[in-house]
Amino acid sequence: MAVLHPRHQRTTTLAAGSIVVGVVVLGLKFAAWYLTGSVALYSDALESLVNVAAAVAALLAVWYGALPADSNHPYGHGKAEYFSVVLEGVFIILAALAIIRAAYFDLRAPSPIVQPDAGLAIAAFASALNGAWAYLLMREGRSRRSPALTADGVHLYTDVATTAGVIVGLVLAVMTGWLILDPVLAIIVAVNILWAGWRVIRMSIGGLMDEALPAETLDHIRQVIAANAEGAIEAHDVRTRRAGSRTFIEFHLVVPGSMHVAKSHDICDRIERALRAAVPESSITIHVEPEEKAKHTGVVVV
Fold first, then answer.
1. What is the pTM for the complete model shown?
2. What confidence tens digit (pLDDT) does each residue in 76-88 have?
3. Which of 5, 121, 226, 294 is the most buried (most CB within 10 A)?
4. In the sheet that 234-243 helps form, which strands lie side by side, from edge to edge?
């Protein structure tokens, strides 16, 4: 079995932690629903069920995506994380449809809310736990460039906002006696979940379609190339893409036609070292060309 890099081991541990936290939060939210009979809290609990399923998918994707390149996957397995993100988006949408169905029946005959104090207190505690874990996942997912962890964190933040809205709405329902607020809140939760599902799926589409890195990152890459390509003439056709935590950078480097191969190789090595320092976990491909191939439109060497 392949041994994961310590950086990837940490990512896998966080993904496994999401399952544990998700199960605990799921139990708390179902307890809140059981005590109150609120369809809004039921919808909130159902979203947490999706969270657990998505966390399992994220763990498998993070583990598989961290495996090193092999003969069948020479560019690595990083894109596996994007499939997990798509699956999470599908889970979110299915949960939203189930919530709308439950809210529809309760809208026709609103159910009374019982033991609201205990139920809302449990829901608030579950939301606080979710919020803390979401913050950790978002921070670590971005620093480790893990789309699966980041998507999981975004989803949990949505869950926190949902629970907060449900709690406020149910307090109003209990105070005013307007029981219809309960199913109306559930429908609002469902719409919010649908929007979150679309955002999660959209995030994965960019990776699967090999979208270029953000403009500011691409500008920084060009600056690094220009500052470390002394002896060359220009660099053009700079292209980038991301697969999981790995970034792919490729470009053409124009050198004087009389330059010795060893000298041009030294320039490439210098550029690669600088790029790997600026963009960790990057895979770099440089195609060296003679000066007559210059396009005069790329990166000008400093």
1. 0.57
2. 666 666 776 677 6
3. 226
4. 282-290, 246-255, 234-243, 299-300
